[in-house]
Amino acid sequence: MKIASRVEKITPSLTLQVTSLAKAMLKQGERVVNFAAGEPDFDTPEYIKQAANEAIRQGLTKYTPATGLAELKQAICKKLKRDNALEYSPEQIIVGCGAKHVLYSILQVACEKADEVIIASPYWLSYPEMITLAQGQAKVIETKAQDKFKLTAQAFLGNITKKTRLLILNSPANPTGSVYSQEELKEIAQIVVEKDLYVISDEIYEKIIFDEKKHLSIASFNEQIFRRTIVVNGVSKAFAMTGWRIGYLAAADVELIKAVGNLQSHSTSNPCSISQRAAQAALENEQPQKMQQMALEFQSRRDCMLEGLSAIAKFSFIKPDGAFYVFCNISASGLDSLEFAQRLLKEAKVAVVPGVVFGRDDYVRLSFATSIDEIREGTLRVKNWLENISG
Question: Theoretical Cys-Cys bridge with 250: which of 25, 64, 231, 351, CB 3.0 to 4.6 Å?
């Protein structure tokens, strides 16, 4: 069968491939340190599991409305008001099968053929692929390490054309851990409004933030940017619920909400009913102290990883302010990112993600979503391996 050209253009997720290979090696008894993981290693909190069990006992095993349970939408509205100072009604919320699914649906309904969507490099690897599938054009702006890999207002403004329709903004960011400040967000928001654009604000890592920094949603500054922002979030990272597959979007644009709802009704129908009830419990009974403890644990792991990486002569990096990744410059090794990652896994049994999938072939991404002992062991292996290959 001839495959559709729009699908032939996309590539498989290397993140999932590397993680799967590392897990397979572990099952075979090999002592692999996995720095490729894109998910918290914590277990889903017990109160969330109990809510899921209760949903099963109560028979919540049938179809729900395609765009999500009313009770979950109410919980999302309360969360957005409490945490982000954003006022939405349940009719402005759509629940999807993970934040990735929600992002895909938004781009499908928001992009016409050849519309430009601006993304900053390094970018989350699925953004350009989703834009391609929506028949849009990814307009990639390369950011600088000295700017902590954040899109500057000047660079954003200078890359807007008549075809530009959307900006995707990710803070805290994957793969860099960068967090945009209030001033930086306000400058970008002003341009979005003045140029009559829309912004997709991917806030999935908002609860994993360090050094007393605060997460701010770009939608929260004024009514103009609020109406032009599509907020995307979910329960995967904050509540260690990656496998439950619940994400959501919030938008003031009624036409967008209607279109995404229609698309979802003909693609996935509703997200898993049991997972929705679990997500409702997560948001309604959020335990701020435990959330803070998780963030502090990730901060300790970050500091441990940075200490280990600082001893590696051929690595340079920017200290991440959020998420659970360190983006490392490997150009001094003389290897491209794919060869670096392949050899490191084969020869030192350490899994990392090659930066080429994030738009930067001179970098690799290391995840510190693992134990302190694993981080110490893994960074030492990387150091010893690099010293051996350099002679």
Answer: 231
Number of H helices, E strands in the chain: 14, 13
> pLDDT confidence of 391, banded at 50, 70, 90?
low
> d(Cα 202, Cα 181) in Å, to the nearest integer?
15
Radius of gyration of the chain (CA): 21
Give SS3 for 353. strand
Taking the chain, what is the end-to-end CA distance rounded to the nearest angstrom? Answer: 50
SS3 breakdown of the chain: % helix, strand, coil, rounded to 5?
A: 50, 15, 35
Pull the structure tokens for residue 362.
């001179």
- Site of tokens 């409305």: 65
- 295 sits in the region (left: phi over 0; alpha: psi -120 to 50; else beta) called alpha
Convert the pLDDT of each residue in 243-290 to its tens digit.
999 999 999 999 999 999 999 999 999 999 999 999 999 999 999 999
> Cα(153)–Cα(52) distance, rounded to whole angstroms?
44
Under 8 Å between Cβ of 349 and 304: no
Enter the DSSP assignment of 209: B
